[in-house]
Amino acid sequence: MTVADLMRKEVVTTSPETPVNEVATAMRDENVGSAVVVEDNIPAGLVTDRDITVRVAADQLDPAAMPAENIMTEDPVTVDVDTGVFELCSRMCEEGVRRMPVVDDGELAGIITLDDLTVLLTGELRNLAGVIEAESPPY
C-alpha cells in the first residue's frame, strides 16, 4: 500500500500572500487543521491551526494584516505518492511531523496526516484480531 492509496486529494491550499484570517476561515470551513502554501502548485510552506494560535492569536496580532508566509513552516517535509506506508510512518517519526503534503513530480497531489494513518492501522489491527479470535479456542 502506498501513500497514493491513503492520501486526501482535496487539500486546502493558499498563496503566501493570503491573510491569515482567510486561511483560518478556509481551514474552519473544510474542517482541517492545516493549509498547504503553494507557489505554482509546488508546496512552499504549511500553516497549521497551532501556527495561527501560537504565532498570531497568542501575540494578539491582526490576522487580517498578516500574510500566511509570515507564520508558515517553510519548505515542509513532503512525501512522494509512491512511498510505502511503513516508510511514511518512519519518516513522520524521524521528522517529527503530523502531516505531510504529498507530491508527484514535485507538484502537490494531496496530503496525508497522522490521523489518516491511525485510522488505517487501527482498522488493520481489528482485522488481524478478528482472524486470531476466529482461530482461537473459546475461553
Which structural traits does this protein have?
alpha/beta, CBS_dom, 3-stranded mixed sheet, 139 residues, CBS-domain, 4-stranded mixed sheet
CATH homologous superfamily (4th level) name: CBS-domain
Poorly predicted runs of 5 or more residues:
none
**Count of DSSP H/I helices:** 5
**CATH topology description:** CBS-domain
Strand count, sense and closure of the main sheet? 4 strands, mixed
- The helicity comes to 40-55%
SS class? alpha/beta
The CATH architecture: Roll
Look at the structure and give the mean pLDDT: 95
Shape: elongated
Domain CBS: 7-63, 72-128
Keywords: CBS domain
Protein name: CBS domain-containing protein
Organism: Haloplanus rubicundus
Quick gist of this model?
This protein has 139 residues and is α/β, with parallel strands linked by helices. The chain is 41% helix and 23% strand.
